[in-house]
Each structure stands twice: as structure tokens, then as C-alpha cells.
Amino acid sequence: MAEPTLGTVIGPFTILEALPTGSGGMSWVFVASVNHRAVSSAESLPDKVALKIARVLPPDRIDSPEQAFYFEALNNEVETLKRLRHPNITRVFPIPRGLPRNPYTTRASELEGSPWICAMEYLGGGSLDHRLKTRGSLSLDESLETAYQIGLALDHIHAKGMAHFDLKPDNILFRYPVEENWRAAPFQPVLIDFGIAAKMSKTAPQAGSLAFMPPERIRIMRGEIAPEDYSDQAKADVYGLGVLLYRMLTGSLPFEGLPREELAEAILKNSPRSAREINSAVPTRVDEIIFGALEKEADARPRIEEMITRLDEAMVTHPPAPPSIRARVQARVPAPTLFSISAVVSLILVICFGVSFALGIFASTSINNIQKPAPTLITTEFVIDTPTPDRRAPTLILPTLPASPTPLPPTGTPTPVLPITTPTPTS
User: Fold this and answer.
1) d(Cα 164, Cα 154) in Å, to the nearest integer?
2) Does the chain have fewer CB atoms within 10 Å around its N or its C terminus?
3) pLDDT of 121
4) Domain 9-121: which CATH number of 3.30.200.20, 3.60.10.10, 2.30.22.10, 1.10.760.10
5) ∠ CA(347), CA(352), CA(357), 5° rounding?
6) Mean pLDDT, 10 residues at a time, over the chain (427 residues)?
7) How many helices (H) and strands (E) does the chain have?
8) How far apart are CA 418 and CA 241, in angstroms?
9) Four-residue CA torsion sign, 53, 55, 59, 65
10) What's the pTM value of the predicted model, to 2 decimals?
């Protein structure tokens, strides 16, 4: 079957352009527009989708196991994605003319060989592979954030009892275009291509990218160990994430440039150069995260949730995560500032009280015009004690009033209340 041409109409879809990312040996992927008027039920689809079309071999090979594998891979991907709902995992959409028992896939009768097709989320931000090829390597904070978010996707997959098995830069797309200052815009890497994803209870397919493949899978493919001896298949994704982080930080793979057989031997027996040795900006704790993920024995590697925690701690220690992805923390006034404000307010209140008291004494003296010695104000100490968590609230010592030199009138005799007048100054 020849590759479909631009402008080809398949049901409600019209092919607009080919996507190199996701187009491998098993399928083609195209950007396709959706004609919402073609089928009324297509209104649930977005305006653009990534249309995936399984490859069809020549007629003399149409009944081969290879052809069956192509169709099986596409249907396996759809069955897997139907069970996954996560912001860092691509979505699959029901299509109007899908089979009644599986509305997510159908056969394109408009194309030679009637290949299986499915409609997935169109991710227009480009691929991590393209970003690495144009930049060589990424900054520490962008690398950690990318690994952290893909780790969250893997954690969701593992919680569903499955593993991805094909983690690599080609299979990571961005939902939004990545700006030069990547923190200034939404940043969301998305994991795609679940063609060889499998339940952990099943034997993983003998496929995938060798450079990201852990030692135990190479041994299984060579027949050196039985698949049932491979107890925790999720650890293959942990290894792949470690290789991915190494690639982002150093600009190269752990065993760059080796032929296939030598590469397999190096993965089985050798340790790669330290990422910190290649890039001095890599902190020691990040180097330890990478080497922990690249352990030869699967049981020695951390689980994906442990790796996520370590990546998160590394981001806290070094650069913060972008505000577009992380929950924003409301600004709070520091506790010492609150205590200082409380102390100042208390001081102002005490001063106002003291001034009011002094003015009252002055007015009373002027009104009564009584010649008597000026009252003596007992020295008062204002103590403002800033509270701390293990101390009580501030203690205020108020002024003590002096005893009045004029005897109070007898009990029962009302004290005359004089109008307030302004004293006439003497010449």
C-alpha cells in the first residue's frame, strides 16, 4: 500500500499533512481536519486530530505475521488508551463509523487494503526529539520538569497494571509550543505511541528502541532468561526514564555511537560515564537519580513513584517548577512580620491612652483653677513583648494614677459639673 496522499478523504477526516513523529514501521500518522457536517456524531471530535493508519503490506504478504502485528499494534494502542486518562498521556477519540463493539477503531475502505485507523489527540507543540536535535541538550530545570511529568504519566500507567515499554524522545510530544523561555507559557510533555504497551501480567513484545531497553529485556529477547523470571516489568519504564534524563542533560545517550550488538553488550555489562562528568551543571543528587534508574538489576532500581519523589525534591532544591503546571501557592505574610505589626499597634494604642489621660488632667486643672502642686506622674514602663510560639501574648503595663491631693466630697454630695471653657490668658 502506498502512503496516503494529502487531501485524501476518509469518512469525516481530510488528510492535511504527514507527521514524522509517530510514523514508524508499523503505521503512518497524519494531521487531519474533521468535517463536522459529514456525520452528526462527529461533533464530539475536535477540529483537528492525529489520524493513525496501520501500514498494509503488498498483497503477497498480506497474510503474513508481520501484517497481523501491524494491525494488532494499532488495536492494542487503542485498547490501552481507552483505559488511561491523564494530562501527560495522549487521548484517543471515538470515531463516527467505528465498529459497534469498539467505536474507537474502523477500517478505511477508501484506502488500498482497508487498513485499520484511529483518531487521536493532535499535539501541536512539536516533539522532544526535535527539541533535542536542535538544541543538543536541555537546561537542568527543563530536563527535571520533563522527566517529572513523564514520570507522572508512567505512574498512572503502572497503577492500571500496564507498562509502556517504548520510552524515547520520539514518543514525547508537547501539547503547546515550547517557547525559548519555556516557563513563560504552558509546558506539558505528553507520552504517545502505546503500540507495544502491555499488561504486566503478559510477556512484553520483543520490540522497542534498544538504546532505551533495560538489560533484562535484552536477555529475554536473546532467550537467556524466561519471561516469567522478569517479575516487575514496570522497572523497564524506570530504566527508560533514566536514559531519557541522561540524554536531556548530556546531549548524548549512555552508550552513544555503538553498533547494535556492541550496544547490547554495553547495556548488559558496562556503566556509562557520569552525567555530571559530561555536564558540570548536573548536581550530584541528580546524577544519583540517573544511576539509580540505570541499575543493571531491575530489583535494584526504584519504583516509579520513588523516582518521581526524588525528581520533585531535586526541583525544590534547585530551580522551581513552572507556574503553569504546578499549583500556585498564595503569598503569606511571614510570622515575624505579623508579630511586629501587632507590637506596633499595641504601642500606638498605649501612647494614645497616655496622651488622652494627660490631656484630661490638664483640662481638669484649668477648669477648677485650683492652686495645687502639679500631680506627680508615677514613672510607667511600657513593655511590649513580641510573642513567640512558646510564649504568651504581649503584656501591657498601663500607667498608675497618682492619689488626688484634693479630698473627695462627702458621700451623697453631688460633684458639680462645670462647663468647659477656654482659659483667658493673663496679661
Assistant:
1) 7
2) C
3) 94
4) 3.30.200.20
5) 130
6) 86 90 74 82 79 88 82 88 94 77 84 91 94 95 97 96 93 91 87 85 68 92 80 90 98 93 95 95 96 95 96 77 40 40 52 53 45 44 43 43 44 44 45
7) 10, 11
8) 90
9) negative
10) 0.71
Which class in CATH covers the domain with range 128-317?
mainly alpha
Residues 236, 268: contact at Cβ < 8 Å? no
DSSP, residue by residue, 220-253:
HHHTSS-GGG---TTHHHHHHHHHHHHHHHHSS-
* Residue 103 confidence (pLDDT): 85
Cell of 19: 507527521
Q: What is the amino acid identity at position 412?
A: G
Q: How far is CA 43 from CA 37, 38, 101, 110, in A?
A: 8, 10, 20, 22
**Residue linked to cell 462527529:** 42
pLDDT of residue 232: 80
Cell numbers standing for residue 419 = 462647663
pLDDT of residue 375: 45
**Close Cβ partners of 341 (under 8 Å, ≥ 6 residues apart):** none
For residue 304, the one-letter residue type is I
What does the pLDDT read at residue 381? 43
Measure the CA–CA gap between 273 and 210, rounded to whole angstroms.
Answer: 18
SS3 assignment, position 86: coil
Q: How many residues are there in the chain?
A: 427
Cell of 94: 471515538
Kindly list the domain boundaries of the chain, sorted by start residue.
9-121, 128-317
